[in-house]
Design a protein that fits this description.
The chain contains 10 helices and 5 strands; from the N terminus they run αβαβαβαβαβααααα.
Length: 206
């Protein structure tokens, strides 16, 4: 079994073209026990990135090449969005609104107050952990669903719709005891103990 502890340990990724800023922020995060790594540009970060690494990104809005804002918006539309805190020496209202609409945890002005940044980063790390847990739960639900037979999937659809065994039997032209048997198998495979729980589990398949 692969040990993924390093991916579960949150890392603050700093992307800023100012080396002094990168070093100062790295020192700040490490002083409170957070792992940190630095990159001078989006291109440099992308070359070394591990999307499965837990944590967040502290991203300068104004960068050479692709801007931090453009990069944040691209990540938000990807299959693996990241929790991002944006920083900039020149933050205006339209820029901040655009960033927040794309899912930024916070937008802070340089020079950044250390406590404000640490609080934003802690929120970002918590947001990242919650999103990863949700993705893991969805993958587990999907894997359970894939173990169902075609008949069990049919019956699951009817059960979620609130149909009784008698109604399902009539719809599928099956004997009611047969429906009960398939339904029991389906509920066990999906780890559901009630119809309400099954409905909630099914929402995770969407």
């Amino acid at each position: 079994m692969i040990d993924d502890r390093k991916n579960r340990q949150p890392t603050v990724i700093i992307i800023d073209d100012d080396q002094s800023v990168r070093e100062a922020l790295k020192g700040l995060f490490e002083s409170v026990g957070l792992a940190a790594e630095t990159h001078g540009s989006v291109t440099e970060f992308m070359a070394a990135d591990d999307p499965e690494k837990a944590g967040c990104i502290v991203l300068d809005i104004r960068l050479p090449g692709q801007s931090g804002l453009e990069f944040q918006e691209a990540l938000a539309k990807s299959n693996l969005p990241r929790s991002i805190v944006l920083i900039s020496a020149h933050v205006d209202v339209p820029m901040a609104v655009r960033a927040m609409k794309a899912g930024a945890i916070d937008v802070l002005s340089k020079p950044v107050r250390e406590q404000d940044l640490l609080e934003a980063v802690n929120r970002a790390i918590a947001n990242d952990a919650a999103r990863r847990d949700e993705r893991k739960a969805k993958a587990l639900t999907h894997s359970r669903y894939m173990t169902l037979t075609e008949r069990e999937r049919q019956i699951m659809t009817f059960v979620i719709a609130g149909k009784l065994n008698k109604q399902i039997a009539a719809e599928l032209e099956l004997a009611e005891p047969t429906v009960k048997l398939h339904r029991g198998h389906m509920m066990r495979k999906m780890k559901a103990t009630s119809v309400a729980q099954l409905v909630k589990i099914a929402d995770g398949l969407v």
